[in-house]
Amino acid sequence: MIVAFSVTPLGVGEDVGEYVADAVRVVRASGLPHRTDAMFTSIEGEWDQVMDVVRRAVAVVEERAPRVSLVLKADIRPGVTDGLTSKVETVERHLA
């Protein structure tokens, strides 16, 4: 499964980069395949693994922010691995 998620601290002002960096550190330390862009972090793995990482990423932001917003989108396809790469490669192949 692939989960794209965004964790946003609320009530801490406009500059939230350091809070987001804390969440991304949790994702990177997980060892699961992941990719971060300007809007979301995507992570790939089994349901329990991925949801545990999301939970911990929210928790680390929650430690410092009075309120946290979580946006999450999931692609649940049992048996598919390396979806982070293969989905993008498929689109690129069609663009070529």
TrEMBL record:
Signal peptide: none annotated. Residues 3-92 form the Thiamine-binding protein domain. InterPro entries: MTH1187/YkoF-like, Thiamine_BP, UPF0045_domain. GO terms for cellular component: cytosol. PANTHER family: UPF0045 PROTEIN ECM15. Belongs to the UPF0045 family. This is UPF0045 protein. It comes from Streptomyces filipinensis.
